Amino acid sequence: MRRSRALLGINWSLSSSRVVTSSTAIQYVSPPSTLWTPPGSRSVYGGHVVGLAMLAAEFSMGKQKGSPLNSLHFYFLRPGSSSEETNFVVEILREGQSFSVCSVSVLQKKEVILSGHCSFHAPEKQDSRMGHSVCMPENILPPEDLPSLSPVNFPLEVRQAKPSCRGVPTWPPVAYLWIKSPPLPPPSPTSAHLHRASVAFASDWGLGVVSLLPYNLTWSSPQLKLAASLDHSLWFHDSFSGLRSDTGATAKIVERHPDATQTTPPSTSPRADDWLLYEFKSDIYSGCRGFNHGRIWTRDGSLVASCAQESLLRPKLLEQEK
């Protein structure tokens, strides 16, 4: 059996400050050296910035703290530096009974490096006869006996869930990873934000690279002039709070397609510090942009999150093609 390597925790350092021009905005600050930089990269890891921006949004929603975050949509505008202080400015745009939305701007040296929105959804009672989900991929290797693929100082455990043919182009462009964060508090309404932030951190790992599989290239291949994530969207299908949705039955009979796969609650509450299967695919690469989407599953087959990302993958052209 393979032993997990010792993992350093994800640095979620945020301190609150209301020194902003707008009375409706709240500012948070992360000190230098908070953000993780991948080995050989000139920019910080985008998933870390997204996770911190998401936490800043969660801390700012006030009376909506009982409404879990259900989605986020961010644009990467500039590369970030781990040597700079990072400011997170949150502005609450709407606080409704069902949904609340806030904007988040992340700045370094007064320049915005990430901008987007987060949505929060109050728990609702669902008809027990409604609910479907696609099925978890089959023929997945268990994580315990697989070697670690985590880079140096990466605060997640990563293992390849399906064997691949290294050194040759891959088709279709699909990949599978097992991911797991360092230990976290048990899932509860007061710790769920840490599990969601850890999933957000993980969701940026490898998603842009899947567009390169048909060409046997990686993020750092010399054939690429530039490789960068352009945006990142994430939807949570489970709150990671340890609570189950209330269910009932509507008065009107609901007709259900016989082939629709019924969603079933996980046998235990999903948690980011247990193995999660990350499935990602590339739908298209065109105009130097790759569009990719991912699904994150628990080991017992529950779909707990989905994500999408567009990446810029600009190859080096031959002189006669320029």
Keywords:
globular; 8% helix; 13-stranded antiparallel β-sheet; two-stranded parallel ribbon; 2 helices; disordered N terminus; mainly beta; 34% strand; Porin
Categorize the overall geometry.
globular
Largest sheet: 13 strands, antiparallel
CATH architecture: Beta Barrel
Work out the radius of gyration: 20 Å
The helical percent reads under 10%
Instruction: Fill in the CATH topology.
Output: Porin
Structure description:
The model is unreliable at about 1-10 (pLDDT under 50). This protein has one domain: Acyl-CoA thioesterase, double hotdog domain (Porin). The chain is globular and about 50 Å long. It contains 2 helices and 15 strands. The chain is mainly beta. It starts with 14 loop residues before the first strand and ends in a 7-residue tail after the last strand.
Please sum up the structure shown:
This protein has one domain (15-123, 133-240, 261-321): Acyl-CoA thioesterase, double hotdog domain (Porin, Beta Barrel), CATH 2.40.160.210.
Tell me the layout of helices and strands.
Elements: E1 15-17, E2 25-30, H1 46-60, E3 69-76, E4 86-95, E5 99-108, E6 111-121, E7 126-127, E8 157-160, E9 174-180, H2 192-203, E10 224-229, E11 231-236, E12 247-248, E13 276-286, E14 289-298, E15 303-315
Parallel strand pairs: 7-12
Antiparallel strand pairs: 1-2, 2-4, 3-6, 3-11, 4-5, 5-6, 8-9, 9-13, 10-15, 11-15, 13-14, 14-15
